Amino acid sequence: MARSIKEVHTINYYPINEGAARRAKEMNSFSDYKEGSATAEYRAMVDKAAAIAEKQKSRVDPMYHEKIDHLLDTYARKLAENMNQGFAIDARVPSVMIAGPANFPVGKKEKQNRARDSNMEEWRYIQGLLDKICSTGMGGISADDPAAIEKLQKKLDGLERSQLIMKEVNAYYRKHGKLDGCALLSPDQIEKLKASMASSWRSDPRPFESYQLTNNNAEIRRVKARIEQLSKQAQQEFSGWEFDGGRVEMNREDNRLQVFFDGKPDADTRAELKSSGFRWAPSVGAWQRQLTDNAIRAADRLECIKPLSGEKPSQLQKKPSILQTMREQGEKVQTEPEKKAPSGRDAER
Q1: Which of 12, 171, 198, 240 fits a disulfide with 249 by CB distance 3.0 to 4.6 angstroms?
Q2: Which residue in 254, 262, 260 sits closest to 240, CA to CA?
């Protein structure tokens, strides 16, 4: 019997700066640097992440495999960048044990420590990608997913098929008074439905009760509405703007409204952003939230990112044409009939 071949995603390892790692070691320790140890540490972490990714792929639908592979590659790339940056930071100023206390550059050391804190914050974000890998395919379909509409359509097809099967199975049972011989069900499914009907408190149980059909139909309507919403959002055009002290960008690729400040905003501004649903993303150096109409409305209320033009952010967004709006509302768009050329006596007047 032939064995099934399991497809394994090729791991991309990104380069580690061994020279920077050696200098960082020399600036902070009396022990010698073991050549290749930084690369070995990096690869071990990526291998561990790859094992997590493969385990998750075995648990979810194949449609999620590409996203998991992308997250793994992002983890490997960002981890290499973070480690290399960390080595560069550690090599800036020697440890007090190495340099000695005399004329020690305290100011430079404080600046180095701030850079280390920022690098550590980025490292925590990168480790959070492992949680994303573990949750991919386990919950609902996120609007951030580029294939969200495709996945929702697949889900809708399954729901509609289930609705049809439930109706036809009920019809078969009404006609024959039994489930045996129903071509729509496997023998195992027939036995499970029989057991369910036998244990039902209803006097006249059916294979699928009305509440099951009602609930499934409600889910069909919900998924259809979500597909329509995401389809409209995909066609919508967003416009960024500049404000006093920074700019706002509409990142369609990442589905984020991103706020970039020229410098670090004060505590009140940060609190205002947080209360409006924005979160700091060290990976991109921006405050951001999901790019939706709600995000635009939230931006309308924030004085700290008010457009230089004086308009509200919502006023800067491109509006659909009147004809398009009328079509969406189901109204008939009437155009003026062509004027006929005058004839007869009217032409002579």
Answers
A1: 240
A2: 260
